[in-house]
Amino acid sequence: MRDLLSGPEPDPAADAGHQDAPPRVGFFTDTSVCIGCKACEVACKEWNAVPEDGTLSLTGMSYDNTGGLGASTWRHVAFIEQTTRVEPAAPPAPEGRALLPLADAGGPQAPASGSADGEGVRWLMSSDVCKHCTHAACLDVCPTGALVRTEFGTVVVQEDICNGCGYCVPACPYGVIEQRPEDGRVFKCTLCYDRLGAGQEPACAKACPTQSIQFGPLDELRERAARRVDHLHEAGVPEARLYGEDPEDGVGGAGAFFLLLDDPEVYGLPPDPQVTTKDLGRMWAHAAGAGLALLAGTAASFALSSLRTPWKAGK
């Protein structure tokens, strides 16, 4: 077991001590087909008995009623409203019928509803979740072993072992993990560990009607996602890009990655996440060196003090 803190890690489950572990599994979320139905949120709460935490009321700022991931919101469907520029509509034909040119004819396209001034609106929707990082800082800093790496390569919280210290909360580069105010313990997505053990897919992926949330072996999902991006580029969507799939990134690749249609910041995601414990070994080495230097200095000062003090017989 190498116990790496950063860099490429081909088999995190084996390095966590799991022998003959199955292939690593995860999520691929294709936001280009998300319709914002929130079926994933409901399925997650129902299957995992996640308590209601005020999510039945709208925020008043958006159709997004959950606001973000938290201890009692393990799936969060984000709604991002954007204003886009569109070309003016074509003039009506002499017969009074609207002129609708073919998409590949290069003619003017009809504007979005309510966009007489040349502006339209588009929705970006995305179901966010814990990333189940290859290098999980939350796991690295946990003093009780409440956070563990499973044989599937996922990261779960053992709620009966968590002591509520909260060290994992600031360690997460995505701001996913959170403490419940009732007792201070942390909770997050388990990727439905109990369902995985029974050979079933997670509840959120099972409930998704558009297959925006896809579950399976991580290597297969990465290949499928790359083909999907190529298809969108060919279809005239050059802004499509993958987020979190690269094993060379700051967290060693995420176990839950996304196809985005805009910059990560637009979706509330960090553009370049870094595992916060990557320098932990070096930090401890420096701290140990400083401690040894302090002890050596203290011992030397006592030795010099004793040499300068004259010895008197009988004392």
TrEMBL record:
Region entry Disordered, spans: 1-22
Xref: InterPro entries: 4Fe4S_Fe-S-bd, 4Fe4S_Fe_S_CS, FDH_Electron_Transfer_Unit, Formate_DH_Fe-S_su
Entry annotated with the keyword Repeat: yes
Positions of the 4Fe-4S ferredoxin-type domain: 25-55, 121-152, 153-182
Keywords: 4Fe-4S, Iron, Iron-sulfur, Membrane, Metal-binding, Repeat, Transmembrane, Transmembrane helix
Coiled-coil region: none
Chain segments annotated as transmembrane: 283-307
Pfam families hit by this protein: Fer4_11 (PF13247), Fer4_4 (PF12800)
Subcellular localization(s) per the UniProt record: Cell envelope
Name this protein carries in UniProt: 4Fe-4S dicluster domain-containing protein
Annotated source species: Streptomyces rutgersensis
